[in-house]
Design goal:
The chain has 11 helices and no strands. The model has no long low-confidence stretch (mean pLDDT 82). The radius of gyration is 18 Å and the shape is globular. The protein is mostly helical.
């Protein structure tokens, strides 16, 4: 992979961790999540008129993915409401590739290489370590359960989108239409929620909107950069390097949110990142 492409992928990974940071830092994680998705949808809507529409065969996948992605956002907000970024983010992002790898072997008979099994072992060890670390520190088990449940959701929409993009003929347009569709239910929820808020809470929300909108831009840019990189380098290599977002998420939790990242948590995040790299690269 060319060094310029590598830097672009790393930037995309940092942007992905950054928008999760903005959700976690928000006063109300549900409202922040909604604002992130609405902003990403609005930005997508500005670009879509200039792109060719995806093939008709991909629209059922878009519809299914929209439902799953909305569920992902709900669980994401819930996980960050009760848990640390440096705990929930590695669990969500690291467990999903593990589930996809194991599922592809069990369900469709794919033969996994030795490198993939090493990755599975590393991710599994990292997940076990994060769970044990949270338990030993008396943290709520709810964050762990929500993060692992959301990993299943991530694996589901990853599979749906993998199939949808293949038949769309227009990967960028497919992803932007998805961002737009996901924004619609969040917009309806946001309007209903805000109208019931007291005046003081609405004023606090207005101050939160710029940072959440930045999160939407980060989310959209992260995915777009990854798509661009996949046109310049092998898809598996891009996907593997992008999982450095797990390390970025842990670092941002420690540095920006001042979360207490123990040695076990830091090593677990690194093990998950290395394991995902091994799964995606083989």
């Amino acid at each position: 992979m060319h060094v310029g492409v590598l830097l672009v992928v790393l930037l995309g990974a940092l942007l992905h961790a950054s928008w999760n940071l903005l959700v976690k830092a928000g006063h109300d994680t549900r409202i922040t999540t909604a604002t992130v998705y609405i902003a990403a949808g609005l930005l997508s809507g500005l670009v879509l008129p200039f792109l060719t529409a995806p093939a008709r065969a991909s629209w059922p996948y878009l519809a299914a993915s929209m439902v799953v992605e909305v569920l992902y956002g709900v669980l994401l907000a819930a996980a960050y409401r009760v848990g640390d970024l440096s705990h929930a983010y590695p669990l969500m992002r690291g467990t999903a590739p593990l589930l996809v790898a194991i599922g592809s072997s069990a369900l469709i008979g794919e033969q996994l290489s030795r490198g993939v099994w090493i990755g599975v072992a590393l991710v599994s060890a990292g997940i076990f370590s994060l769970v044990a670390d949270a338990h030993s520190r008396g943290r709520s088990a709810a964050a762990t359960r929500l993060a692992l449940l959301n990993a299943c959701v991530i694996a589901t929409y990853t599979t749906i989108d993998g199939l949808g993009v293949r038949v769309s003929g227009q990967p960028l347009a497919y992803s932007l239409w998805l961002f737009l569709f996901v924004a619609l239910p969040w917009l309806l929820w946001f309007i209903a929620r805000v109208t019931r808020l007291p005046a003081d809470d609405r004023a606090r929300l207005r101050r939160q909107i710029p940072s959440a909108a930045l999160g939407g831009a980060c989310s959209l840019a992260s995915y777009t950069l990854a798509l661009w990189a996949m046109t310049r380098a092998p898809v598996a290599a891009v996907a593997a390097v992008r999982e450095t977002s797990i390390v970025f998420g842990t670092l941002l939790g420690a540095v920006v949110l001042h979360e207490r990242v123990s040695r076990v948590r830091a090593l677990a995040a690194m093990a998950i990142a290395l394991g995902v790299w091994a799964i995606r690269a083989n």
